[in-house]
Amino acid sequence: xxxxxxxxxxxxxxxxxxxxxxxxxxxxxxxxxxxxxxxxxxxxxxxxxxxxxxxxxxxxxxxxxxxxxxxxxxxxxxxxxxxxxxxxxxxxxxxxxxxxxxxxxxxxxxxxxxxxxxxxxxxxxxxxxxxxxxxxxxxxxxxxxxxxxxxxxxxxxxxxxxxxxxxxxxxxxxxxxxxxxxxxxxxxxxxxxxxxxxxxxxxxxxxxxxxxxxxxxxxxxxxxxxxxxxxxxxxxxxxxxxxxxxxxxxxxxxxxxxxxxxxxxxxxxxxxxxxxxxxxxxxxxxxxxxxxxxxxxxxxxxxxxxxxxxxxxxxxxxxxxxxxxxxxxxxxxxxxxxxxxxxxxxxxxxxxxxxxxxxxxxxxxxxxxxxxxxxxxxxxxxxxxxxxxxxxxxxxxxxxxxxxxxxxxxxxx
Length: 413
Description:
Distance between the termini: 38 Å
Radius of gyration: 20 Å
Number of helices: 14
């Protein structure tokens, strides 16, 4: 557990508040993962094309971009407890919007619900990731890396459970029953959050101006650009193309698709949590070299999977499954490195401004990846999605070479 390495005197009210924020983030993550799986599988079952399914997530990703930018400003102005509670409330509204009769589930209506869910998700992520910067002394970077890795990894493990939950709920309760059940459970969490989150953690001492939304830090700009391509590379084949391929080409049922993707994300989250043990302590002093090395290792994996699938032999399926597992492990290290560095680079006063800007780039990468996942898969198949993924990762690797030591004066230029 996260609290085992915290000295007794460290259990301040700030840390207690952070733990509540983290618990809320975990609960939200379950519904977010489940909802994504529900939408992909349900609307594929209704006959939607991969590109149409990708379009359902368009507003989810677009509003995620906007929310990360504006949400960081709000967190610095009104406190992270308020942004967290607003996010939970919006996710509840999104879930109950989807509980309408089937004939009302038009594309526009679903996109609107996804827009609310996208806003909610990034308010929650920004609140949790920003809080940790305020709780670890600046001279304990090893501890900061561990905490960020644990938070990020546990979140993704729970998102994997959410994928499985989505497949199970769809099979047991069908679409409407599933979203009602999740909305009711999250309402209980939200009411508890309103009671427990009382401290304005993360309020900036110097209130930021709206024109300060865009980061002026060279290091954060470089890291954000690398993050955009890194997550675009993942989502271009994982979000739409892979589950549709497993369902339509390999004939897997809902339970199998949901269970497999859930297991993948859970394993991915576990590896994120132990990333500091894998990368060692050199990340703090040589972030550019470390991120380049790990991105370079990742670059060839989608290409190898693509070659294995295109061979058309009986080994194509094992290559896909095995390659996906290797990709997840190496991608997890890359993601954890990035998550640590943004918290390390961010300014303590108004930390949510820098974190929000960074996750705006993350959301932009997800948006690009999601749209390409539907379009490229529909027009050229899964192999083409994998080649695009390799190209994006190579670009992220080259960008990361420009990262400097967090103590370098160039970081703030």
